[in-house]
Amino acid sequence: MKIPLLAFNDKGIYCHQADVYLDPWRPVTNAIITHGHADHSRWGHKNYITHHTNVPIIKHRLGDINVTGKDWNETFTINGVKFSLHPAGHIIGSAQIRVEYKGEVWVFTGDYKTEDDGISVPYEPVKCHTFITENTFGLPAFNWIPQTEVMTDINNWWAENKAEGKTSILFGYTLGKAQRLLKYLDTSNGKIFTHGAVENMTNVLRPMVDFPPTTLITRDTKKEEFPGNIVLAPPSAHGSIWIRKMTPFVTGSASGWMAFRGARRRRAIDKGFVLSDHCDWYGLLDSIKATGAEKIICTHGYSDVFSKYLREIGYDARTEHTQYEGDEGETAETDKAELEQGNEDAA
After folding, report:
1. CATH code (residue 269)
2. Residue 40 sits in the same domain as residue 118
3. Lowest-confidence region among 88-92, 236-240, 302-306
4. Which DSSP letter does residue 328 get?
5. Quick one: where's region Disordered (predicted)?
6. Residue 1 falls within a domain, yes or no?
7. Is this structure's pTM higher than 0.90?
């Protein structure tokens, strides 16, 4: 029986010929990492390979690791298997992994999105025979509106809150979402305050992107400084003691899940903005078509629904179980750890 070029096992996605794992969730010797979110780049591997812009990100999160950075489209060969990294557009430094052996080509997307957010290198389709795709938002109900419209809504919301003398608290994941929001906040509305977790990660990324100035919230920040301004914080800060001195405040959250009715209410958020770092239904379909792949492997998210639809329209599609968590879980552990540190800084 022929061994597949990439196989799923209890440690991750494994290339037997090269003895390399892609985004493994258990410690392995050799790991190629798509991006810096906690569910895809985990501590404990002996050797890491990733895109060079992701190197400072995973070093910030994982500490002293043995990591090698590669450039876009740079081919590196391991035991006859050719690997290369290609832009995924998910967050800064996010990559797809192309794997080729004896003329057979597979592509693993990691997480990706097709909308150009202006800070990540935009997604590029890569031709292949087998395409491993996430399905975080793999339902027809998910159909994103353009980022420019979402940011206009956010800046108008901030202005309205300012007119009422309230603090705007906007929640977004520490890595990726927070910087995407920061890049397009209208500083004519006021100052941008940051939670320590957001500030620390943003400082790692500032050499790569021109972000607006921010003010770190510390124990010396006075309550009187907040009204009319905006605070960027990780979702895990919601409901914490940390935000009490920002009263009166209004909360907002930027997430793809805000497209679901009731999501804002369930999370006790005042305002929801539909903004995701993943593909919507149509982005997934367009991406698959652009690869020319006949075989599709669907992973985390609505994989069963999405793979069923793909089979109905003629693809050889199946699902595989992974430990990737998608939009909601991808930074939960890291946010929690960084939240504790940020709260200590501001206490």
Report:
1. 3.40.50.10890
2. yes
3. 236-240
4. H
5. 321-347
6. no
7. yes
Q: Provide the residue range defining the domain that includes 327.
A: 7-142+278-336
Residues 243-260 have a mean pLDDT of 93
126 and 189 inside one domain: no
CATH number at 115 reads 3.60.15.10
The backbone region for 177, taken as left when phi is positive above 0, alpha when psi lies in -120 to 50, beta otherwise, is alpha
Report the candidate in 110, 175, 166, 122 with the shortest Cα–Cα distance to residue 147: 122
Of 205, 133, 206, the residue nearest 175 (C-alpha): 205
Residue-level pLDDT at 14: 98
Least confident piece of the model among 21-30, 35-44, 132-141, 318-327? 318-327
Taking CB atoms within 8 Å and a gap of at least 24, the contacts of 41-47 are 45/21
DSSP state of 280: -
User: What's the DSSP call for residue 80?
Assistant: T
CA nearest neighbour of 254 among 334, 189, 145, 178: 178
CA distance 116 to 33: 22
Q: Pick the last residue of a domain from 275, 301, 318.
A: 275
Does residue 154 carry a pLDDT above 90? yes
The two three-digit tokens of residue 333, written as one number = 């552990």
Q: What's the rounded Cα separation, in Å, for the pair 294 and 276? A: 27
Cα angle 339, 343, 347 (rounded to 5 degrees) comes to 180
Cβ atoms of 58 and 48 closer than 8 Å: yes
Report yes or no on 346 lying in a domain. no
Q: Look-up: residue for tokens 């939960």?
A: 332
Cα(198)–Cα(254) distance, rounded to whole angstroms? Answer: 15
